[in-house]
Specification:
single chain, about 500 residues, alpha/beta, nine-stranded mixed beta sheet, four-stranded mixed beta sheet, 13 helices, 19 strands, about 30% helix
């Protein structure tokens, strides 16, 4: 009733999943204990260093129900990483130019990981089951394979925090799992072949990755699939998953016939380029944030909000600014000759030769029009104030998301049974979800309710890390499947048959 009441004033209410805390169990006399201390939980640490934030997010999956919860979250600004010391080699930088060394990244990751566990009285050696590392800091790198150097620095940080190496790699068999996890593992019946959430990763003809932040795209897709379990949306293949962090990543998966012997979907599209860096450029012209290192996160909430009726009076002027800004935003299939798009290293030639659609988002060419957006942002704030700037940013980001979907549609990669999901601050905050939903409704992509095909999920990478850890350890839940196709059954039986 509440949702319908709100729809009378604000239109359809999008499905927005925010990280729920784990439930607690009462032991009487006022004694309450977190469920993950009592029941069989699979606890995963997602260690993420991005261009804007560095996070350690602890997620726990109740293996009896298949539900995942965020146990704790420690977030630091990546720009606050300590500067290089004499003798250290700078191997990369964030989008705002913050220099990074292997040692500085290692220390930041170590401290963040330890702090996150201490806050909830968990032991890294005893309570933690698995660690997944990822990074979006790719702009200053020369090629996708250089991300490996960064991942090594992340791994060193985990090791210095006390994470055993065995908790960062898949087990060799069911017997190598802790005894409390073995009853929930299917490792004796299926083999992990690299498919996460029922999707095979894209591999070019040469075996190289096509985009530098490939792993982030994989985690985002898996995280959206997991998050959608908290809604009525069946977010299984085929799907379009988009991560709107500072940089853009994500995947498009294909459909799978029930008669197909291989139950895994193939990755048929990738997203790359700039995302949250674009609203960051807009707000840096206001004087309200640092001119070089300020972000939209410094100015706006990262939570979703309902629309503002007052701003409708100025909608015409808002639309003018949105159109003006989008004249500088380049969204299209990345040409084969490009080695960077939106400052992100890509192998567009490999993607083209492999039949993978690489959809990119840029600002000018490799961010060349950043200064222009700063000027426009400053003008909006000076002449119209912060409320209009907020609405312009939300509508610019929503239009970016819709243009990405439009390109996928043009490539005939969005069949009627597709589900579309977003994660990342530049897609799930403010009024962006409502604007994106309305845009999909206006496009008439789906014969039934478009809202049943769309979901917004926070902490997508952390949720994806939890799901990746479960896949590597074969900790599936047939009654709560993430693999398979929309409306279809769990694919466990088909996987067992293949194994035999």
């Amino acid at each position: 009733m509440c949702a319908r009441f709100m729809e009378r004033f604000f239109g359809p209410v999008p499905h927005i999943v925010e990280s729920p805390p784990p439930p607690s169990i009462s032991h009487g006399a006022g004694s309450v204990m977190p469920e993950y201390k009592v029941k069989p939980y699979f606890i995963v640490a997602s260690v993420e260093m991005g261009n804007t934030t560095t996070k350690c997010i602890l997620t726990g999956t109740n293996l009896e129900t298949g539900r995942s919860y965020v146990i704790n979250k420690t977030v630091k600004m990546s720009r606050d990483v300590r500067p290089p010391k004499p003798g250290e080699v700078v191997f990369g930088a964030t989008l705002d130019g913050t220099e990074l060394t292997r040692e500085s990244v290692t220390e930041l990751v170590r401290d963040t990981l330890i702090e996150c566990h201490k806050e909830v009285n968990l032991s890294i050696q005893d309570d933690l089951d698995f660690v997944v590392r990822s990074t979006g800091v790719v702009a200053a790198m020369d090629s996708p394979d250089q991300v490996g150097d960064f991942v090594i620095a992340l791994a060193n940080g985990c090791l210095e925090a006390g994470v055993p190496p065995r908790k960062m790699t898949p087990p060799m068999g069911k017997g190598n799992l802790p005894r409390r996890l073995q009853p929930f593992s299917y490792a004796d019946k299926v083999v992990f072949v690299g498919a996460v959430a029922g999707v095979l990763p894209p591999v070019g003809a040469t075996g190289v990755e096509m985009v530098a932040n490939e792993m982030e795209g994989e985690l985002a897709m898996a995280g959206i699939k997991e998050g959608a379990k908290w809604t009525s949306v069946d977010f299984r293949n085929p799907c379009v998953s988009v991560d709107f962090g500072t940089t853009l990543d994500g995947r498009i998966t294909g459909d799978v016939s029930p008669e197909d012997e291989n139950p895994f979907a193939k990755t048929i599209g990738n997203f790359c380029g700039l995302a949250g860096a674009i609203p960051d450029a807009i707000v840096r012209g206001t004087g309200l944030v640092e001119e070089k290192r300020g972000t939209a996160l410094d100015l706006f909430s990262d939570r979703s909000t309902l629309g503002s009726l007052a701003l409708r009076l100025k909608r015409g002027k808002v639309d003018e600014y949105v159109k003006q800004i989008h004249e500088h935003i380049d969204i299209r299939i990345v040409p084969p000759e490009r080695t960077r798009f939106g400052r992100v290293p890509v192998r567009a030639d490999v993607a083209s030769a492999s039949g993978i659609a690489m959809i990119g988002c840029d600002l000018g060419e490799n961010g060349s029009d950043t200064g222009i957006l700063k000027e426009i942002g400053g003008e909006i704030y000076r002449e119209h104030g912060l409320p209009m700037l907020t609405d312009v940013v939300d509508r610019v980001c929503a239009e970016m998301a819709l243009r990405l979907v439009d390109v996928a549609v043009e490539q005939k990669m969005v069949p009627p049974n597709t589900s579309i999901g977003f994660t990342g601050r530049a897609a799930i905050s403010g009024q962006k979800p409502a604007y994106i939903l309305q845009g999909l409704i206006d496009r008439h992509l789906f014969a039934d309710d478009p809202n049943d095909h769309l979901v917004f999920v926070d902490d997508g990478l952390a949720r994806g890390a939890a799901l990746m850890g479960r896949c590597m350890n074969s900790l599936g839940h047939p009654k709560c499947p993430v693999g398979g196709v929309r409306g279809g059954p769990c694919i466990l039986a088909r996987r067992i048959k293949i194994g035999k």
